[in-house]
Fold these 2 entries.
Entry 1:
Amino acid sequence: MDESLTSRQLTKCDECRFGAHIEWSELETSEVELLNTTRRTRSHRRGGTIFNQDDEPQGIYCVSGGYVLLWRIDAFGNETAFGLVGPAELIGYRSYFAEDRHAATARALTDCQVCLVPSRTMRRLLDGSPALVRRFLRTLARDPGPSDGLLLRAHQVPIRVRLVSLLLILRDRFGVRGPDDSVEFNLPLARQDIAALVGARAETVTRTIKELEDDGIAIFHGRHVDVPHLDQLYEIVGIDEPV
Amino acid sequence: MDESLTSRQLTKCDECRFGAHIEWSELETSEVELLNTTRRTRSHRRGGTIFNQDDEPQGIYCVSGGYVLLWRIDAFGNETAFGLVGPAELIGYRSYFAEDRHAATARALTDCQVCLVPSRTMRRLLDGSPALVRRFLRTLARDPGPSDGLLLRAHQVPIRVRLVSLLLILRDRFGVRGPDDSVEFNLPLARQDIAALVGARAETVTRTIKELEDDGIAIFHGRHVDVPHLDQLYEIVGIDEPV
DNA sequence: CGTACCGTTGAGGTGAGTCAAAGTAAGTGG
DNA sequence: CCACTTACTTTGACTCACCTCAACGGTACG
């Protein structure tokens, strides 16, 4: 096993609480301590599986480093990705609260580190903290779930637009501002992953990318993307030009 | 206003609690009494609106009679229906817990009766009943939300299959067994509603219906549908024949 | 009896899928 | 470190399911 991850393993959950956006921020110090002592940290290599569709949930997973892709195979055999989760975000909570098997598979897009908060701990925390419960109610209600989470799989929206929407969504996490209004991306996504996210085939993604390159809107070099003018992305998504 | 509905208006929530499947079944008698005294019952004519997309939630709505369609207009202007709700089922809870405006519009498919449980009541009930909270956590986690709730909008699934899936889903509510393995439906849905539910255009629905009729799988007379052999529906959905 | 909506039918276009094959990158073992 | 396997990516030719636009027949309702 690669030790590079475990060496910079975080010792306290506090260090993970990047901000108020994570659910645990509702907890008191003593409760964070419980979280801290009962959680189980695991490292995953790129491509590894955190949990599998149809597995029985063992608790809630908290990503502390790296990125994770949530995808599922639907009743008709199509692979669909519906979520990309990064540091200080939770996964697997939906199945936990649904009291049902995992509806999705979580795959490590990069080497990553994930903590499992066991069901037993979750129960104690939820019983003791109405604030945490309220927070999870809100999270669940806002989470679009294993469906078209990214609004990327709406019908009658051309792949071109969906692809550009995806870029805009990923900008916060993987985009770096360049000179003027240019942006550079380093995506942890293979073409197939992109395809699964926008609800298309890999071949179509390739072709659409080429189209965007021809129009000078986004230049792809493998997983590196150059967007010379961010405005152009918004234009495409906004007005949905008639070709 | 038509009085036929108000005349058979239910006086107690108890009479509405058709079974354990409704959230209120978690409540104690005294709590049901609170529900009973603070709820506001409203009657709606067919076509009426219970709440509108982007409205501020005022509580949770409980359908006591009739059927309601949940639909929304997405960012790209497409109308999509994602839920059909009937007696003893709740609507609007997602927005309530999300602490956000309604993500959908609720339209009465039939004349119907809906009770509003005001936010104030909800707060009191939730504060007093951990069981109710747990139940709502489960409901939210299981509810696919304003997305492809019926698995009917999956990509690469032909409209024909989606339409048949819809029939199978609606069988419990609107299907009546006939002789042998035949089923009759009386749907409260216009062609456009069906189209919005399966993610297609009304014209395409018409054409697909005609196809099903030619194959003797389902005969449509307006909103009345005859299905001579239920098995055939399962066959279509199951094996997704290669034409 | 007209207005308005719903439903059907037709002609025509096309975006994206499918299949197949070649090219490229990435990881494995000797 | 190179040869080999395996998986990912690109390209091309072809097909078709569904959309669009437009017109017309039905049906409900004031």
Entry 2:
Amino acid sequence: MSLLDAAAQVLRCYGADCTDLTVTELVTRLGMPKSNASRLLRAMRDAGLLENVGASKRYRPGLLLVDAARVYLRASSLIARADAMLARIVADCGHTGHIALREGREVTAITDHPGTKALRVASSIGTLLAAFASATGRSLLARLPEAEVRALYAAGFAPPSPSAPQDMADLLRRLEEVRRRAYATANDEASRGIGAVAVAIVDPRDGQAVSLCIAYPAATTDAAERRSLLAALLDGAAEIAALVGDATHAVRPRAG
Amino acid sequence: MSLLDAAAQVLRCYGADCTDLTVTELVTRLGMPKSNASRLLRAMRDAGLLENVGASKRYRPGLLLVDAARVYLRASSLIARADAMLARIVADCGHTGHIALREGREVTAITDHPGTKALRVASSIGTLLAAFASATGRSLLARLPEAEVRALYAAGFAPPSPSAPQDMADLLRRLEEVRRRAYATANDEASRGIGAVAVAIVDPRDGQAVSLCIAYPAATTDAAERRSLLAALLDGAAEIAALVGDATHAVRPRAG
DNA sequence: TGGACGGTTTCACGAAACGGAACGTTGGTT
DNA sequence: AACCAACGTTCCGTTTCGTGAAACCGTCCA
């Protein structure tokens, strides 16, 4: 593992469940020798990638990441478009929506639109989910060739719940279903009591893929409502897909 | 210069005026040998710090920076509070406002609130300004001991305009004025035709400092309006300062 | 006081980064 | 087709840096 890989691993620790790190926490998280951890955190701080929390020995992300991250988000017209579309769908249906991207075997929400109903799903920003065991993840995995999915999970996977795919064959079958219908669903899978429906769009110009997702409380959302929000999602995705040239949504399958 | 320093320098290139980089551009920007630049960009990409724009040889920030940057912004209740306050002031006065932080000898806007007037100042997000030659920068420098300001500018500075501080004595005199009044101003300094007023708040718990700034078109903003928005800014800053324990704004000097 | 704990520093050696030069690729011009 | 320019990659010998284990340091608590 190179020094840059180590630094990137450190940065990946930060998210909804981790706002700062100590040497010992890094040792525990990454299995790194204590002296390496101490020196790496200090070198990253000195470079500006991290900063200390006041005079403490705690390290958090540094300011220089903010502008670069902003460039990432703004460089992508696909993200911007998908996000605007999702905002409209959320405003109409009242459920929580987010845009998710895949990073390796995980997915992360990068934008978030809280719903307006009394009972709604909480923000998932900054939380990493296993791609194979989430609607957004499966919608994105379905856009990969089978060989690539097999290579990604060459070491196998541990299902987090009984409703998640149980093995490679199960996963591939579900991805084939996603490809056929053009959307993915999840129920009680990453989080209890929550259902989700997700649609992926790929920008053929640069290969970037995003997933638009609506998450809803399973107990209070009946079949008619689920059909309605799925239709809105598929319509919205088709509109963006037409703009960026993603042929997958050219003929939209009937929701059902 | 260590490898991490080099990587951080690359990330600092990204902002409002740079959304992606090639090997040659990096050579030009950082004066780095070509082979080093090629290897560095590739190593950063392989680590996830950067990614290629499609199949091109252009590199842009990688997704992993987004969550870490978000943690930076959310970890700071000071930024959140200052931003909310500024939003209210902007809504009232109609001019453009932003929150700025200092990084070394420069300041960068991290949040932005466009004004509502017909003539308003454009967004400055992602643009670095010289701290000594901007209102936000001077409001933040005034919160440093004089020795620290001298050390920061040990190599001297080149004034970007006739209204900017011309030498160290001039800068120190202005910073003393900022300390006395608790706010900094700029006119025609970083940008022609624009005036700005800025107030800094320091969170004594972790030493974090932010500057709240309102920027306005100099030609159409009369003295009464300037006094009014300065009063709003000072009132807002005093309110936040009381919450975080910054004693500087405990007794607010009369604006004038 | 002694021990536990978190973090830092030291050390010798192997790994990685260095910069210049050669090489490979692409596109444009004659 | 041959040539040239520009960009990016790879090679090579040398130098620098990162490695992990162990020692050390500072703080806190029984």
